[in-house]
Amino acid sequence: MRPSAHSPLRRVVSLCACLILAAIVMAGCGGSAAKISLLETKPLSDTQTLSPQGFNHFVNANLLEMYGAYADALSEYEKALRYIPTSVIIRTDYAELLYRSQRPYDALAVARPIEPKSSSVYLLIANCYRLLAQPDSAIPAYQTAVALDSLNMDALWYLAGFYRESGQADSAIAAYYRLVRVSDTYYLWQELATQLGKAGRYAEALTAFQKSVDLKSDKSNIGALMGLAATYDALDSLARAEETIDRAIALDPYDVRIYRQMSAMYVARRDVKKAIMASEKLASLLPSDWMVHRRLGVLLYSDSQLDKADSLFRSRIEAGDEDALNYFYRGRVAIEQGRLDDAKSFFERTVEKENTFVDGWLNLAFAYREMDSIGMAISALQRGLPSCTENMDRIRLLYSLGSIEERNGQYDSAVIVFQQLLSIDSNYTPALNYLGYMLAEKGDRLPYAQTLIERALAHDSANGAYLDSYGWVLFKQGNYDKALVQLKRAAEVITTDPVVHDHLGDTYRAMGDEAEARRQYEKALQIDPENAAIKGKLGR
Q1: What is the reported pTM?
Q2: Is the pLDDT of residue 134 over 70?
Q3: Which of 64, 93, 116 is at the close of a domain?
Q4: What is the enclosing helix (H) or strand (E) of 7?
C-alpha cells in the first residue's frame, strides 16, 4: 500500500483553480488575449501569454480526464499547449496522462524539456523509466525527486522497493527509515522491520515490529506480530516467540500464516512434535491443499508415526493426488515395517510417476537388494540413469551401482562404473576412496590406487575410512612402517570397525610383532564375534 501517484483530489483542486483563473482573465480582458504577469500564480511558468482558448481546452482536458475519457483529454491537452506552449502545469498534466495511458516514451518527450523541474516532474520521469524497465535511468530521477522534496512519498517508496529488490539492504533500510519519519504508518514500520530482520539487525527489527503493532493491533496487522515472533525466534528467545504467536492466534485463530510460520519454526528447531501439531492445524484449515498434507505426512514419517503417515499418504492417493512423493513415502514406510514387496511396488509407482526422481530409483534398488534380487537392483539403477540427467543425481546412481556390482563380485564392471562417475566429478571423494580401496584389495594398479586415495585425503584428511584405505594400499605395496602410521590414525578415528583392527593385525604380523597382531585380531573379534576370517588368523 502506498500513496497514489496521481491523486483525484489534486485534479479537482487544479481544475477549480483553473476555472477561477479563467473567469478572472475573461472578466479582466473582455475575452481577448493579453500578456499578464503570473509570478504569483504557480506552478505556471513565471511569465507567459495567457490565452482564454488555451485555458478552455485545459479545463476540458481536466473534465474529460476526471470522467475517464483519456483519448479526448489528451487531445484537449495538445490543443491547450498550442495556445500556451510554455505552461508547466499543462505540460506536466499532459505528460502524466500519457504515462497513465501506458505511453512512457511520449510522456518522457513532453516532460524532459520542462525547466525548472520540480520534484513531481522528476517523479514522473522516473516512473516512465521504471515502466520502460530502465532502472539505471529511473533511480537517479527518483533520487533527485527526493533531494528536491524529502517528503516525496512516491519517490521514497519506489527507491525503497528498488533497493530492497536489488539486495541493497542498507540503502533500503535508510529509505524506509525516511518513509516512517514522513508517514508514521503501521505498514511502513512493518516493511522497515522486515528489512532490518533480513539484515540481521534484530534489536532494531524488534523495535520496528513493535511500533507497527502499537499503531495497529487488530487482526489486519497479524503480519507484524508474526514478524515480531520470527525476530524473537532468530534471537533464540523461544518463549517470547511462542507468546507472540499466541497473541496472533487470539486475534485470528484461522489465519493460516500463523500455523505455516509455527511449523517452519519448529522444523528449524527440530522439534518435530510441535511441528506436527502446527501442521495438523494448518491441514485442518486447508483440507484441499495437498502440499500441506504431504508435508504433514513427511513430518509424521520422520517422527516414526508410520501408520499415521501411511494412512495420510494413502488418503491423498485415494483423493486423486498422484504426486510421486505419496508413493515414495508409502514405500519408505513399507521399508521401515519390513514389507519389502509392498515397498518395491510403491517405488516402482514412484519412478513411473516421476522418472527423474533419483531417490525413487535408489530406494527401488535398495528394496530389490534387501529382497536378495541383486540383478533387479542393478537393473533399477541402470534404468534410472538415462532419465536422471543432473550431475549429482547421476553420481549418486553410479556410486550405488558401482558398490552393488563390487559386492556382487562384478569387479571389472564396478571399476568401469566408478571411472565413469569420476569422469563427471574427478574430486568426488567417496568414489576416489572406494575405487582406490577396491584396487588395493585386488592388488591391482597399486600406485594408481594410492593416488586415488591420496586425492580423497587431500579433501578430507581426518576421514577414518580414507586413512584405513591409505594404510591398506601402503601395506599392499610392502611399505609397512608408513602403513602402520596411517592405520593407527584410522583406529583413533574409527573405534567400532573390525576391518581397521584386522588391517592393523596384518601389518603387525608382517612386521614380525605377533603379540600385537593377535591383540588387534582380538579387538576385531570383539566387535564382530562371528568373523570367520579373523578366527582363522587366530587359529580358532
Answers
A1: 0.74
A2: yes
A3: 116
A4: none
